[in-house]
Design a protein that fits this description.
Number of helices: 11
Bound molecules: 5'-O-[hydroxy(phenylacetyl)phosphoryl]adenosine
Structural class: alpha/beta
Strand order of the largest sheet: 4-3-5-6-7-8-9-14-13
Distance between the termini: 54 Å
Mean pLDDT: 95
Helix content: 25-40%
CATH architecture of the largest domain: 3-Layer(aba) Sandwich
Number of domains: 2
CATH class of the largest domain: Alpha Beta
Low-confidence stretches: none
Largest sheet: 9 strands, mixed
CATH topology of the largest domain: Rossmann fold
Number of strands: 20
Strand content: 15-25%
C-alpha cells in the first residue's frame, strides 16, 4: 500500500494544483515586487508590474534569474524577508565566483522539511524506521534537509554526516538502520566496503536508500540495489530553492514528482529561453511559490531534463521530472560533439564495470582528447595484457557507438580511483587551464 506524508496535497487533482499555483504565484510576484528591488528592476525593464501576472499562464512573461544574478546580488540582494525574520543560511559552492548563499525563515525551513518528509515516506519510511543520514551536515543542504524530514516522519534519526566509513557501517549494523540517505557514489562505496567485509545483502538491515545531489544512471541504481539489498530512490533539489526534496521518487522508480504546491517547473530551450512542451528535453526552470526569505522566480537550474504529466502508478498527481541528464554547464563539447558524463557511465556499467571512473579531457595539437580511466573489479583484475587490451577495445567500441567519438580507455587497478564521501568529481577538463 502506497503511503503519503500529505495525501491531500500529493494526490490533489490537476485542477486543484493549478488553482493553488495561480493563487500563490500572484501573491509571490507581489511579495517579490515589494521586497526584492533587484527583481523589481528586472520586471520594470520588461515593462511589467504585478498586475500583469494573473496566474500560471502568465509565468512566461516574467524575467529569468540565473547564477549570474545570484553572484551580482550576493549576499543579500535577493533576500525577500527582513534579516530579523531569517533564521538560517545554507550554501553551496559554485564552480566559478562566489558561493551561493540561500536564506530561510522558520516557515521556509518547515516547508522544506515537509518536502523531505514526503520523500522519506515515498521510500516507505514510517516512525518504525531507523534513518541514517550520511549526507554532509553544515552549509550543504543534504544533511540538514533530510534530518528535518526524518524527524517529521518520526524515524529514529542517526545524524552521522558524511565520512568515516567504518563508523557508518558500524551504526548501520549495530542500530539496524533501515533507510540510508547519502550521495549515490557514497552509497556505492559503502556497498563495496561492506561486500569486502563479507557482508551479504541479506545480512544488511537496510531496506531503502534516498540518493541524490549528483547525477547517477539506472545502471548504477541496479548495482547499488543489488549490493545493499535495498530499493534505491532518487531525490533532487538545489540550495537556491531550499535543498533536497524539490522532487523525489516514489515506488514506480521512474522519475521524480516535483512538489508542485511549492514549485512551478518549466522546461526551456537554453539558447532562446522559449518554453518547451511536455516530453521535450531542455533546461529546467523553477519558480518558488512559498519561499519567504529567498523567493526566486523563474530560476534557471542549468539541469537538462524532461517533464512528464503521465499518470503515475503511485497515485501522486504532481508532475514528474526524469533523472537530470546532465547540466548545460557539465556538457562537454569534444571535437564538436556534445557529451554528457552520464552517457559514459551507462556504457561502463553496461559492460560490468563499477561506477569508479574518471573522464579526462585535454587538447593536444589543437585537437580535443578524451581519456576514460576505468577501474576493473577485483574479478577482472589480471596481468594478462591480451585480456586487458581486448577489454579496452570493447569499451572503446561501446563508447563510440554511444557518443560517436573515439575515446582512449585505460583500465586501472581496483581501488586506484579516489572515492568521494559527498559529490563525486568525475570530470577533469584540462582544456580550461
Ligand atoms: O545537491 C541538494 C541535494 C542534497 C539534493 C541531497 C539531493 C540530495 P546543491 O549543492 O545546490 O544542492 O546542488 C544542486 O546538484 O542543480 C543538480 O545539478 C545536482 N543534483 C541534485 N540532485 C540531483 C539528482 C543539492 N538527484 C545541483 N540527480 C542540481 C542529478 C542532481 N543531479
Amino acid at each position: 500500500m502506497e503511503r503519503y506524508y500529505q495525501p491531500e496535497i500529493e494526490t490533489a487533482s490537476p485542477e486543484q494544483i493549478k488553482a493553488w499555483q495561480d493563487e500563490k504565484l500572484v501573491k509571490q510576484v507581489r511579495h517579490v515586487w515589494d521586497c526584492v528591488p533587484y527583481y523589481r528592476k528586472l520586471m520594470e525593464e520588461k515593462g511589467l508590474t504585478p498586475n500583469d501576472i494573473k496566474g500560471r499562464d502568465d509565468l512566461h512573461k516574467l524575467p529569468f534569474l540565473s547564477k549570474y544574478d545570484l553572484r551580482e546580488a550576493y549576499p543579500y540582494g535577493l533576500m525577500g524577508a527582513p534579516l530579523k525574520d531569517c533564521v538560517r543560511i545554507q550554501s553551496t559552492s559554485g564552480t566559478t565566483g562566489k558561493r551561493v548563499v540561500a536564506f530561510y525563515t522558520q516557515h521556509d525551513i518547515d516547508l522544506w522539511e515537509d518536502c523531505c518528509a514526503r520523500a522519506i515516506t515515498a521510500a516507505g519510511g514510517t516512525n518504525e524506521d531507523v534513518c541514517q543520514i550520511s549526507y554532509g551536515y553544515g552549509l550543504f543542504t543534504g544533511g540538514p534537509g533530510l534530518n528535518g524530514g526524518s524527524h517529521k516522519v518520526g524515524c529514529l534519526t542517526i545524524p552521522t554526516s558524511s565520512g568515516n566509513t567504518e563508523r557508518q557501517i558500524m551504526f548501520i549494523m549495530d542500530l539496524s538502520a533501515t533507510i540510508l540517505c547519502c550521495t549515490p557514489s557514497y552509497a556505492a562505496y559503502l556497498g563495496e566496503t561492506m561486500k569486502e567485509m563479507g557482508l551479504t545483502p541479506d545480512q544488511i538491515p537496510l531496506k531503502a536508500g534516498i540518493f541524490g545531489a549528483e547525477a547517477w544512471s539506472e545502471e548504477m541504481r541496479q548495482s547499488i540495489q543489488e549490493t545493499l539489498g535495498i530499493k534505491a530512490y532518487d531525490i533532487y533539489g538545489l540550495t537556491e530553492l531550499s535543498g533536497p526534496g524539490v522532487a523525489f521518487e516514489c515506488s514506480a522508480q521512474n522519475g521524480m514528482h516535483i512538489n508542485e504546491d511549492h514549485f512551478i517547473a518549466e522546461i526551456i530551450d537554453p539558447e532562446t529561453g522559449e518554453v518547451l512542451p511536455d516530453g521535450t528535453q531542455g533546461e529546467l526552470v523553477f519558480t518558488s511559490l512559498d519561499k519567504e526569505a529567498f523567493p526566486l522566480l523563474r530560476y534557471r537550474t542549468r539541469d537538462v531534463c524532461v517533464l512528464s504529466h503521465e499518470k503515475c502508478s503511485c497515485g501522486r498527481t504532481h508532475v514528474k521530472m526524469c533523472k537530470p541528464r546532465g547540466r548545460t554547464d557539465d556538457m562537454l563539447i569534444i571535437r564538436g560533439v556534445n557529451v554528457f558524463p552520464s552517457q559514459i557511465e551507462t556504457v561502463l556499467l553496461n559492460q560490468g564495470y563499477p561506477a569508479n571512473y574518471q573522464i579526462i579531457v585535454d587538447r593536444v595539437n589543437n585537437t580535443d582528447t578524451l581519456d576514460v580511466q576505468v577501474e576493473m573489479t577485483p574479478e577482472m583484475f589480471t596481468d594478462n595484457l591480451g585480456e586487458i587490451t581486448s577489454r579496452q577495445r570493447e569499451l572503446v567500441d561501446g563508447l563510440r557507438s554511444m557518443l560517436g567519438l573515439t575515446a582512449k580507455v585505460t583500465l586501472v587497478a581496483p581501488k586506484s580511483i579516489t572515492r568521494s564521501e559527498g559529490k563525486a568529481v568525475r570530470v577533469i577538463d584540462r582544456r580550461k587551464i
